[in-house]
Amino acid sequence: MAGDTVLVSSSPRFDVYRNDFGWGKPVAVRAGPGNSISGKLVLFPGIDEGSFDIQTTLWCDVLVNLLADVEFLEHVTTMV
Q1: The whole model's pTM is what?
Q2: Measured between alpha carbons, how far is residue 51 from residues 10, 17, 44, 66, 80 in Å?
Q3: Which residues pair with 74 in a beta bridge?
Q4: Is 69 a catalytic residue?
Q5: Is there a domain that residue 54 lies in?
Q6: Would you say residue 77 lies in a domain?
Q7: Ramachandran bin of 39, using left for φ above 0, alpha for ψ from -120 to 50, beta for the remaining angles
Q8: pLDDT band per the 50, 70, 90 thresholds, residue 52
Q9: Residue 68 included in any domain
Q10: Which of 20, 48, 53, 61 is catalytic?
Q11: SS3 readout for 16-34
């Protein structure tokens, strides 16, 4: 993709946290490196009711600019 593009993908048909492949209960979901392009957001229903998980792929210069953006950082939450 060229230019300033944001792509959002997911599937409401695939409940990732209720699948058990014999490895134990999933604790996180990732789309994988083969499915990553800069500007792509992948959304999954979260493990807790009403929550959702977001995976975003951005070029490193975009991340540097976001970390320097005070207004953006005021709205970011950190999980401990």
Answers
A1: 0.53
A2: 14, 12, 9, 24, 16
A3: none
A4: no
A5: yes
A6: no
A7: left
A8: confident
A9: yes
A10: 20
A11: HHHCCCCCCCCCCCCCCHH
